[in-house]
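Model it.
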Amino acid sequence: MSNNAPAPRAPHPGGPIAGGPLGLDDVTASETTLRRFLHGLPGVDAVGLEARAASLGTRSIKTTAKAYAIDLAISMVDLTTLEGADTPGKVRALGAKAVHPDPTDPDTPTTAAVCVYPDMVATAKEAVAGSGVKVASVATAFPAGRAALDVKLADVRDAVAAGADEIDMVIDRGAFLAGKYLKVHDEIVAVKEACGSAARLKVIFETGELSTYDNIRRASWLGMLAGADFIKTSTGKVAVNATPANTLLMLEAVRDFRAQTGVQVGVKPAGGIRTTKDAVKFLVLVNETAGEDWLDNHWFRFGASSLLNDLLMQRQKLATGRYSGPDYVTVD
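Modeled.
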């Protein structure tokens, strides 16, 4: 071994693949081994990936299946408000909508979660109390992720202490793009530890800033190796967010990761999914790529704000044969 080579280190205890099959517990022993593994993943055929995503997006479904898909999609929404102008009143209203998306129809499913900034977690928790709706909180210097690790961890601990059931963290894209994979890995591990047993961890890659499909595949495996419970496309704060192609790629990654390790990881596309038609396309991607095991809000989510309104209007259209007036749903 060269004197300049980084010294190997023990695998992180408690990680999802510690002691796992195929030697994956050795992958994160050093920067060298991690780089070798990530750059040894098969290259992505961009043309083939986009063609498959487009082909799956043309699938049509029958009326009864559409009704099921709409209710499933509603149950998978992380109803989100992440604005500087968020107020306790707005968050309480959002929580009420998550619990009763259509107050005129008690059979309408609740959404999966409400997603807010850390300082609004307690308010959101109170608003959804007793409903089963989770409270998710963005943390780790969202959306840029440019802060010292101790600041990021304090952000996470504050959100968890306030009652967050889920933490949506952002990776340091600058470190990732500079090839500092072990730094990114270790930050995810530290955030996972800060979540403890109280909160599941969603790791946001900001796929629109990763430039290539190969990078998205590498980030997906990196996040999963570090212990992510979910991998998530985007913050919703950049020009390119979730797309069928990048979500398909991430679904392939979680499928392959489970095949190798036995560990199931969720996927959350976020940003730009606004219509029922879009949501159904993504559900087809899930079913045809990862399989039915992921067709549940424990393993698949939509990061969305306006999507829920369209799902509710389409749901009423199926039930009554006509579209509602513009005042049928609340304006978020």
